[in-house]
Design goal:
Layout (H helix, E strand, L loop, with lengths): L5 H19 L6 H21 L1 E5 L2 E5 L1 H4 L4 H7 L2 H21 L4 H32 L4 H26 L1 H4 L5 H16 L9 H18 L6 H21 L22 H16 L1 H7 L3 H12 L1 H19 L15 H49 L5 H5 L1
Antiparallel strand pairs: 1-2
Helix pairs in contact: 1-14, 2-4, 2-5, 2-13, 2-14, 2-15, 5-10, 5-12, 6-7, 6-15, 6-16, 7-15, 9-10, 10-12, 11-12, 15-16
């Protein structure tokens, strides 16, 4: 007979572990920030898993999206395209961290080295693995179309990290920048591109300007300018209304992610509609801060959020690899619905939902293999911060009484 005492013991062990995590968290930590970052990361992961398909077409794999055949599923992209929240939280954390570093006497160069080290140390593993994988696939006879498709999907998160790294490096210049300035840049770029027939390459200016809008909102959060609920409501209502106008009357796509074969993408590069939608998302995130703070008082909820944050880079970098590894491995069993078939109906959607736990299991394997790199960079950063604090204290002038003694 099964041991009925095992489940209560497991629950008690989980509660004790969660209580230890909660007890080790500094009381002044704003847990809503971590909760929003976790939600943003998980939104990106689930969004990619739901709207990205690898279709087995003869001897190759090609990318497809259910949004192409079923455009009425566009609201899915509204829920899971959470990059604006990711950049807003990043701007808030970076500007707050920079202020703390300056208070400790730490220079911008050292601060930036620590911040970028945490970003790019885990990237080296992804780049190395996929360089070897691409070479192995080509030497093994895989078609160039297949190799290009899987490498592009696997390395697509690196584009956002590169933008994030550039904005992080420019943080000292952005701490006082009003988000309306980069928003005006996005507006004028789209006006020239779509209204005046300007060159397509001009849209790539919005890669920096578009994500700079929520990043500057994060800096405004640090300055205390977004604490009142009115700020959140203004962003939510204004952003939603602007998005609706742009989609319904200005010809922008309803999907907030790129759709293969579409003439215009709201994401690559970011369009005015995507930025307006991001403002609405940021407004909603600001309004959720107090409810999230209350929810994070529960040890189990906080422990789950803390775990995601400790592994945020690993999850972000490897979730596409987990999906593709599952797809490639399962191909040995034939073309499976929801995994290798064309995403052109609700049967594909139902089958894809059943694959999500398998993707999560594959991601857990990637996490077990590579999260040590992220933790190593974090521990190294913490050691350097302690050394800087000790060095700063040792250079403080002695009190007059001590010098005269």
């Amino acid at each position: 007979m099964p041991d009925t005492r095992r489940k209560p013991r497991t629950r008690h062990a989980l509660r004790r572990a969660a209580a230890r995590v909660a007890g080790a968290t500094p009381p002044q930590r704003d847990r809503a920030v971590d909760a929003l970052r976790a939600l943003a990361i998980l939104g990106v992961v689930l969004g990619h898993w739901l709207v990205t398909a690898l279709v087995a077409d003869g001897g190759s794999l090609r990318a497809a999206s259910p949004l192409a055949a079923m455009p009425w599923l566009a609201p899915v992209s509204w829920t899971f395209q959470t990059l604006a929240v990711f950049f807003m939280v990043g701007g808030h954390v970076a500007t707050r961290s920079l202020a703390s570093a300056r208070a400790r006497g730490e220079g911008h160069g050292r601060w930036l080295k620590v911040r970028l080290g945490r970003l790019f140390v885990p990237v080296t593993a992804v780049a190395a693995v996929w360089t070897a994988a691409a070479a192995g696939l080509l030497l093994g006879g895989a078609s160039f179309v297949t190799v290009h498709t899987v490498v592009k999907l696997a390395l697509s998160p690196l584009w956002f990290l590169l933008v994030y790294a550039v904005l992080t490096a420019a943080t000292p210049l952005l701490t006082r920048l009003n988000p309306l300035w980069p928003l005006a840049v996005v507006l004028h770029v789209d006006l020239v591109r779509f209204g005046l027939g300007g060159p397509e390459w001009l849209g790539w200016v919005n890669i920096a300007a578009g994500w700079l809008v929520p990043y500057c909102l994060g800096a405004a959060w640090t300055r205390g300018e977004l604490e009142r609920p009115r700020a959140g409501w203004t962003l939510l209502v204004g952003g939603a209304a602007g998005t609706a106008v742009l989609v319904l009357w200005a010809g922008y796509p309803a999907s907030m992610v790129g759709v293969p074969g579409a003439a215009v993408s709201n994401l690559n590069p970011p369009s005015l509609a995507a930025v307006a939608f991001g403002l609405a998302q940021c407004g909603l995130a600001l309004l959720l801060r107090d409810p999230l703070r209350r929810a994070m008082r529960r040890p189990l909820a906080w422990a789950a959020v803390a775990l995601v944050n400790l592994s945020a880079m690993t999850v972000f970098l490897w979730h596409q690899t987990a999906m593709m590894a599952t797809t490639a491995t399962a191909l040995t069993a034939g073309r499976l619905p929801g995994l290798h078939t064309l995403p052109d109906g609700l049967d594909w959607v139902a089958a894809r939902l059943l694959w999500l736990p398998v993707f999560a299991l594959a991601l857990a394997v990637c996490w077990a293999a590579f999260h040590g790199l992220e933790q190593g960079s974090r521990r190294s950063r913490d050691r350097r911060s302690r050394v800087v604090r000790v060095h700063h204290r040792s250079r403080r002038p002695e009190p007059k009484a001590a010098r005269s003694a």
